[in-house]
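Hi C.,

You asked whether I'd gotten around to modeling the 330-residue construct. I have! Everything is below, sequence then structure, no commentary in between.
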Amino acid sequence: MATESALPVLCECGCGEPAPIATRNRYAIGHLKGQPIRFIDGHQLRVQIAKSRERAAKEHSTFESGDGLCRCGCGQPAPLAPVTMRKRGHVRGQPQKYIKGHATTRMERSKCAASDCNVQITAEYCAKHASRIARHGNLTGKRPTGPAEERFWRRVQTSEGCWEWTGSRRGNGYGVHWTDERKLTGAHRYSYELHHGAIADSSLFVCHHCDNPPCVRPDHLFLGTVLDNARDMVAKGRQVTIRRDACPSGHPYEGNNVAINPAGHRRCRQCTAESNAKAIAKRNAESATVRCPVCSVGVGLPCVVRGRILTAAHLERHRLARRLHLEDAS
């Protein structure tokens, strides 16, 4: 009895065409080698366009159901939006949500927390004092003075868990601190040297047991190399690719097939061996024996007339042939 053939997997855009089969693994977009992919190339835009039109229609119906007044409660008619701005909820030709400047009038305002400031705001500090706290950790706008250790403890907020650094931070969350030698260093590194002494090897990193970048608690810190830090990241499951159990070629990440480079990335040993074998085979093919077009002798490298260097014996043969040719010509 003939078995019924399996139905093909269709493209998810709704076009009804069968989806192609993935030729290799691409985990970032959900492709598995040998399995049907979600969309035919270019068809995923149809889904995005459909969702965009549905969202625009929903916003349009929302604006039509309103009375066209500013939502702050002032009772004034809101102006019509000249262009569509979806982030602000504007649809071209429809009333905006608020009159310009009225969006925050419904929020509760209070005086700035700084004692000498009377600005009414919705946050704790006004823009001026918030900037001073972010840059210098105080409301005066001046760089803190005094010994580095004294300035360090002004910025540390101790607790039963992590000791948070309240001073300036880098974009990655790590705090920075000026030493007495006018050198900018990491707050966690300064804390380690303050409690355990100077670090003899400058190539070592100060790592966190707690994985909290602004933490400066000394018992949460330890010294290690780049490889130690990478292994600690993998052991704690914080690596982005830790969920993958196989390389892009399908070889499992297990046992002796896994190698970790100094940057903390996993490499497949089988893929590395195959790549090296292909490179060796290509190099051997390029150095295969060829015939010299002048003396018709098999050599391991291209002839000198092709722009490559040959052995001394072949060069001598070509010099002799050149000399005999010149003698015959004369």
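If it helps when you're writing up: Helices lie at 44-65, 127-136, 148-154, 187-196, 226-235, 269-286, 312-329.

Thanks,
B.
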